[in-house]
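step: validate -> pass
step: tokenize input -> pass
step: predict -> running
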Amino acid sequence: MEVAPAQYCNPNGEKCTGSPDAVGKLRVPDGSPLQISVPGKVSETPWQVVFLYRGANGQELDGRSPVFTPNERHAYTLELPPDGVHLEHVEVQQFSAVLTPGADGGVDFGIGGSWVLNVEQQ
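step: predict -> pass
step: emit ->
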């Protein structure tokens, strides 16, 4: 399944396009991994995967992959942590060159592109 960007900006965080309605929907069986592939325009920049899932007690939890450096990889297999039961939401985030002061000092990179997928229950 290919998903259009919910948001996509140039490397300077300007000239943004996309649609907040560009959300893919997919059924993923509980406990199954999800293979995520990104195009070259994403993999040639820093990117990561963020996700929401339900734990065994029904609590909503979140997680994220490491940040992948430019040209490090074109795919990522998302497997829920051991406390996870059901995957609910996945977002691929492409970082831009825009820097903002970080809450703990240092800097944070802005998100220049995002691709969103909601997981439907079986």
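step: describe -> The chain has one helix and eight strands.
step: cleanup -> pass
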